[in-house]
Specification:
The protein is of the alpha/beta class. It has helices spanning 5-17, 19-29, 49-62, 117-126, 189-203, 224-235, 240-283, 289-299, and strands spanning 37-42, 67-73, 99-105, 131-135, 152-157, 178-181, 212-214. The protein has eight helices and seven strands.
Length: 301
């Protein structure tokens, strides 16, 4: 809570390792969190999210804000490792005491985040960072978990990805509070802006209309419109919208924690031998996955 970077780093490591340590860290720090504005940045691979986040950090620092950044990289399903390369693009802030960047592997979690991402954000929030930016893995239309972990969600797109129909599809297009057309110096950038704005008009709005801004990640001057849009979204509705987003985020975290604890309890009570017998019965065709679960639960006290 004093902002000691070594303590923050160790606390995040405990959270990532899971189990009772993770729960204890969050229990102790949660009462001191809730002050930071959490900005999620998502979009397909190769759209320049990390470069954009690097520029966003610079803008916030110029305004005197302390910034935490969590960059989620994909984990190999074969080796379990992750390159954690997003941090390389933010190395310019490595000597700035007002910036803390943490890369983390997704560890097999779907949705664009790691299972511990929200708890890592809690650590940074409690440590006194004014803004926490969460960058997802390269996300497709179904990886929309960032909306359950951020107050403002920025969806990044670039021209020239190929199939323009992708812009018209549901999923990631429905979660954006702000849309950034990055690499706006490329051909067809204006065309993509018009396409996104057309989709948003068709969707309608009960209040906030997501702005579509053009950015060039390596040109920090071009990010002024993006930063203004994020600021306006934060202030929209006099804070009522933000409070509603906080309720949704809290409900999602409670459900995830409940699922995790119930699964842990079920496997612990069933024991490894009972679980292995269930696996063998399904493989042999003597049972099916749902019946196997019924059997395991039926044997629990």
């Amino acid at each position: 809570m004093a902002g000691d970077v070594r303590c923050v780093a160790r606390a995040i490591s405990v959270v990532e390792n899971g189990g009772a340590g993770r729960r204890e860290v969050v229990r102790l720090l949660h009462p001191s969190s809730g002050r930071a504005h959490i900005v999620g940045v998502t979009g397909p691979p190769g759209v320049g999210k990390s470069t954009l986040v690097d520029g966003m950090i610079a803008h916030y620092r110029a305004s005197g804000h302390r910034v935490g950044a969590v960059a989620v990289d994909p984990t190999s399903p074969f080796t379990g490792g992750a390159i954690l390369g997003d941090r390389i693009r933010m190395v310019g802030h490595s000597t700035d005491a007002g910036v803390f960047v943490r890369s983390m592997g997704s560890r097999g979690s779907l949705g664009g985040l790691a299972s511990a991402t929200a708890d890592v954000v809690t650590v940074l929030d409690a440590a006194g960072f004014d803004v926490v930016i969460v960058e997802t893995v390269g996300a497709g239309q179904a990886e929309v978990d960032i909306v359950t972990a951020s107050h403002t969600t920025v969806v990044v797109e670039v021209p020239g990805l190929g199939d323009d129909v992708q812009v018209l599809k549901a999923g990631v297009m429905e979660i954006g509070d702000v849309f950034a057309v990055n690499k706006a110096d490329m051909p067809d950038a204006d065309r993509l802006v018009v396409q996104i704005e057309s989709v948003l008009r068709l969707k309608g709005s009960g209040g906030w209309v997501p702005p579509v801004v053009k950015t060039i990640g390596h040109d920090r001057a071009s990010l002024v419109g993006l930063m203004d849009a994020i600021s306006r979204h934060r202030a929209h509705g006099g804070g009522a919208v933000l409070m509603e987003r906080r309720r949704g985020m809290a409900g999602h975290r409670i459900r995830l924690a409940l699922e995790e604890r119930l699964l842990e309890a079920a496997l612990e009570r069933a024991g490894p031998s009972r679980f292995e017998r269930a696996v063998e019965s399904v493989v042999a065709g003597e049972s099916d996955p749902y019946s196997a679960v019924d059997d395991i639960l039926g044997e629990m006290p």
